[in-house]
């Protein structure tokens, strides 16, 4: 088997040598001379003259075919040498193979072709014509693939740019209520809680800031910083109450425009704001990250392990977190849903029911059946959208 592999390599090296010699002879052949010989009845000269009419394509085409032949020659030869030798002998054999390829596959054939223009080109015209056609076809195929890739990249870039423009427009029109974490989902700590309990909560939830409440979450008193809790723990000081460590909270109306709030928070170096409704109650909280995500999309880090808002099931239905924005639901079902009355899917269900629905209840909306899968207290938590 190794003998056959070496024989195949020798044949391919010789074939490449012939192609190199004929190619060098061809490029040094004046087309006028080939046309003159063709008029004398030499059909080989006529075909050579036809090739020389597109001289710039000759060398790239031949170079591509020659490279392919050398690669095909190296593979069986290297395999055979690894079976016959090892160690230093294998290294020496591979170096010798490289020298053979360079000398007999390139240097000597090209020198021979340059010394005999026309003669070698005419003699091996049968090899040159198909080799050049093969090389040109391969080059055209690669070019087409590159163009397809460029078109795909351009289409992807245009889609990305359109998405960015859409996000910028949405960002300019968005208000805090649309991007905030609603009050039921806020992670909070009581003002009378100990610093040890607050630190456990911070570590468990992975939060850097936690609102502190008095009587209930409608009564936000301040914000507790994880950094302050860690400093207290590092100093081995005794436990203290959350109200003694909290800092002032930053309150904003839930109807405040997102771009205005982002500029305000940057100017005041505030990272978290408490959103309040028209009655002064707590509507939710918003961070700078929430505002930026409205502009650039979801920002995830190694600590984010939130479940996706929409999960497609095997039966074609969708399990939807009721906190999903109503506009995202509209995109999912292919329609525009007016958001004057609802901001989330949960709000939509409450609006359709006119009360807090029970688990398992079905509602029809825009020719789609929606089932309430989970209710937490007075809040719809999970629904199923049927196809």
Notes on the protein architecture:
- With 387 residues, the chain is an alpha+beta fold.
- It folds into 3 domains: 2-143, no CATH class; 176-296, CBS-domain; 310-385, Uridine Diphospho-n-acetylenolpyruvylglucosamine Reductase, domain 3 (2-Layer Sandwich), CATH 3.30.465.
- Helices cover 57% and strands 14% of the residues.
- It contains 15 helices and 12 strands.
- The chain has helices at 2-27, 31-39, 43-52, 58-84, 87-115, 119-123, 125-173, 176-179, 195-205, 226-234, 242-245, 258-268, 288-296, 326-333, 345-353; strands at residues 181-182, 189-190, 209-213, 220-225, 251-253, 272-276, 282-287, 310-312, 318-321, 362-365, 368-376, 379-385.
- The protein has a 5-stranded antiparallel β-sheet with strand order 8-9-12-11-10, covered by helices on one side. It has a 4-stranded mixed β-sheet with strand order 1-7-6-5. Strands 2-3-4 form a 3-stranded mixed β-sheet.
- Helix 3 (43-52) packs parallel to helix 7.
- The longest helix is centred in the middle third of the chain and has 49 residues, at 125-173.
- The chain is elongated, with a radius of gyration of 38 Å.
- The model has no long low-confidence stretch (mean pLDDT 81).
Structure characteristics:
387 residues; alpha+beta; CBS-domain; 3 domains; 5-stranded antiparallel sheet; 4-stranded mixed sheet; 14% strand; elongated
Instruction: Give the spatial strand order of the biggest sheet.
Output: 8-9-12-11-10
Summarize model confidence as the mean pLDDT: 81
Basic shape: elongated
Low-pLDDT ranges: none
**Between the first and last Cα atoms, what is the distance in angstroms?**
61 Å
Q: Count every beta strand, where a strand is a DSSP E run of 2 or more residues.
A: 12
Question: What is the domain total for the residues?
Answer: 3
The gyration radius over C-alpha positions equals: 38 Å
Largest sheet report: 5 strands, antiparallel
In helices, the fraction of residues equals 55-70%
The secondary-structure element order is: HHHHHHHHEEHEEHHEHEEHEEHHEEE
Strand content: 5-15%
Number of helices: 15
Helix/sheet category: alpha+beta
């Amino acid at each position: 088997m190794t003998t056959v592999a070496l024989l195949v390599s020798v044949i391919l090296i010789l074939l490449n040598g012939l192609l190199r010699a004929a190619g060098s002879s061809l490029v040094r052949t004046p087309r006028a001379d080939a046309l003159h010989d063709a008029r004398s009845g030499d059909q080989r000269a006529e075909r050579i003259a036809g090739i020389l009419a597109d001289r710039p394509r000759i060398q790239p085409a031949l170079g591509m075919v020659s490279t392919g032949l050398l690669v095909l020659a190296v593979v069986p030869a290297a395999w055979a040498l690894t079976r016959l030798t090892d160690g230093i002998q294998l290294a020496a054999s591979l170096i010798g193979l490289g020298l053979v390829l360079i000398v007999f596959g390139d240097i000597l054939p090209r020198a021979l072709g340059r010394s005999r223009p026309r003669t070698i080109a005419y003699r091996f015209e049968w090899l040159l014509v198909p080799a050049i056609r093969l090389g040109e076809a391969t080059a055209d195929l690669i070019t087409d693939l590159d163009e397809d890739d460029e078109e795909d990249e351009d289409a992807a870039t245009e889609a990305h740019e359109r998405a960015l423009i859409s996000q910028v427009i949405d960002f300019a029109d968005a208000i805090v209520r649309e991007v905030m974490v609603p009050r039921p989902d806020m992670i909070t700590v009581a003002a009378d809680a100990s610093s040890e309990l607050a630190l456990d909560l911070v570590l468990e939830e992975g939060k850097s800031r936690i609102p502190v409440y008095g009587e209930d979450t409608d009564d936000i008193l301040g914000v507790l910083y994880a950094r302050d809790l860690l400093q207290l723990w590092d100093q081995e000081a005794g436990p203290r109450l959350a109200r003694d460590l909290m800092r002032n909270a930053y309150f904003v109306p839930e109807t405040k425009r997102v771009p205005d709030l982002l500029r305000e928070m940057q100017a005041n170096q505030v990272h978290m704001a408490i959103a309040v409704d028209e009655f002064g109650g707590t509507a939710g909280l918003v961070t700078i990250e929430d505002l930026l995500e409205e502009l650039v999309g979801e920002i995830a880090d190694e600590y984010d392990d939130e479940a996706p808002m929409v999960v497609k099931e095997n039966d074609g239905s969708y399990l939807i977190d009721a906190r999903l924005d109503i506009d995202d639901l509209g995109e999912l079902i292919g329609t525009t849903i007016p958001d004057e009355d609802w901001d989330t899917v949960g709000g939509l269900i409450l609006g359709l029911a006119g009360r807090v629905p029970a688990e398992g209840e079905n509602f029809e909306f825009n020719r789609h059946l929606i089932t309430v899968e989970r209710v937490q207290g007075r809040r719809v938590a999970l629904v199923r959208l049927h196809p």
